[in-house]
């Protein structure tokens, strides 16, 4: 009979907390897979998480052995651990969310254990596996998962938990989440350009597959097309990662479009990209606000240094953090079932006026 992932975790935690098992070999992947009905890849990731923590040790051609016994307190499933797991793609990109969650957690005597994936899919999956390998050590988790494959791959495990809140993207309709209406953000950007009589458009987004990028683009494109205008594929620019390319990066496709001297309405995935588009325009002698328009996203502090002032879409990220933490505590208090009574909070961005359009 197929068992649950939680039962597998309970079994492994019990095995690792028994003093007599120090130095003993852990049951093989095949045995665990047959007993619990879970695939080898998932079990192997779970084992790897314990290896990375120094609890298990892989011995070449011999198997996996118990290197250190974990305390019974960490595997007992106590409800008074006062710890929550917080997974985000970046610390520098989400300071308001982190600060808000930590502030709320401090009031209740909770510790927010921060895990950062650095926009890397494999790291993100490893951190998810780390959470599940020690799920009894947390009172719940708040997850901002960037890569759709990681959501899909872990969907069954997430479905078994009723103390998890997702940010921006969740595995399906039966999950608890605090969502940003990124589609609405794209719509607001397009509507602003259309109100200013723009008829040619460019979207500058991220190169890596990102659901937020897709949602903002789709809202932007749908609104443009519904108005009787077009957003050709060649006008959808993929940037070579705003997080690593630096200020000297030059996008040949964008430069080619800007040389056409059209009055483009340019919607940037975020303010950092918008700032780099400013540099392209300056080099090409394009006057922002007169020759073309630019709209960013996030309303970051640094945009006050951009001239002319950037039009940007503002997200109250501090509110996201507060909503997520309070929702998590409500789930813990009320025992809310994600299968029968999911809670989804949607927050819409607000357009902050400027002089760049």
Structural class: alpha/beta
Overall morphology: elongated
What is the fold named in CATH at topology level of the largest domain? Rossmann fold
Radius of gyration (Å): 24 Å
| Helical run tally | 13
* CATH top level assignment of the largest domain: Alpha Beta
Low-pLDDT runs of 5+ residues are 73-80, 242-246
3D structure, described in words:
- The chain is of the alpha/beta class.
- It folds into three domains: 5-72, Winged helix-like DNA-binding domain superfamily/Winged helix DNA-binding domain (Arc Repressor Mutant, subunit A); 78-180 and 318-347, Rossmann fold, CATH 3.40.50.2300; 182-314, Rossmann fold, CATH 3.40.50.2300.
- Helices cover 40% and strands 18% of the residues.
- The protein contains 13 helices and 14 strands.
- The strands form three sheets. Strands 4-3-5-6-7-13 form a six-stranded parallel sheet, with helices on both faces. Strands 9-8-10-11-12-14 form a six-stranded mixed sheet, sandwiched between helices.
- Helix 12 links the parallel strand 10 and strand 11 (293-297).
- The protein is elongated.
């Amino acid at each position: 009979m197929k068992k649950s992932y939680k039962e597998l975790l309970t079994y492994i935690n019990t095995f690792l907390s028994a003093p007599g098992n120090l130095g003993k070999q852990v049951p093989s992947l095949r045995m665990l897979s047959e007993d619990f009905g879970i695939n080898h890849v998932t079990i192997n990731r779970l084992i790897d998480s314990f290896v990375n923590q120094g609890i298990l040790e892989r011995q070449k051609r011999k198997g996996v052995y118990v290197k250190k016994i974990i305390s019974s307190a960490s595997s007992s499933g106590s409800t008074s651990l006062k710890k929550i797991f917080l997974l985000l793609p970046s610390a520098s990109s989400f300071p308001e969310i982190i600060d808000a969650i930590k502030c709320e957690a401090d009031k209740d005597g909770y510790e927010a254990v921060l895990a950062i994936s650095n926009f890397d899919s494999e790291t993100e999956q490893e951190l998810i596996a780390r959470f599940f390998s020690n799920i009894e050590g947390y009172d719940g988790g708040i997850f901002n998962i960037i890569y759709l494959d990681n959501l899909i791959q872990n969907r069954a495990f997430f479905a078994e938990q009723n103390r998890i809140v997702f940010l921006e993207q969740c595995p399906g309709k039966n999950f608890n989440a605090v969502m940003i209406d990124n589609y609405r953000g794209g719509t607001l950007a397009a509507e602003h350009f259309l109100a200013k009589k723009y008829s040619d458009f460019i979207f500058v987004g991220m190169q890596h597959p990102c659901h937020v990028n897709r949602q903002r683009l789709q809202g932007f494109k749908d609104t443009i097309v519904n108005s009787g205008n077009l957003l050709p594929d060649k006008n959808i620019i993929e940037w070579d990662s705003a997080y690593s390319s630096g200020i000297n990066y030059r996008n040949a496709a964008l430069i080619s479009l800007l040389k056409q001297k059209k009055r483009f309405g340019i919607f940037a995935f975020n303010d950092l990209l918008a700032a780099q588009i400013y540099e392209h325009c300056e080099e090409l002698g394009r006057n922002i606000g007169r020759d073309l328009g630019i709209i960013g996203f996030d309303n970051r502090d640094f945009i006050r240094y951009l001239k002319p002032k950037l039009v940007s879409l503002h997200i109250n990220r501090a509110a996201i953090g507060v909503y997520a933490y309070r929702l998590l505590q409500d789930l813990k208090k009320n025992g809310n079932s994600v299968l029968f009574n999911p809670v989804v909070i949607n927050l819409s961005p607000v357009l902050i006026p400027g002089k760049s359009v």
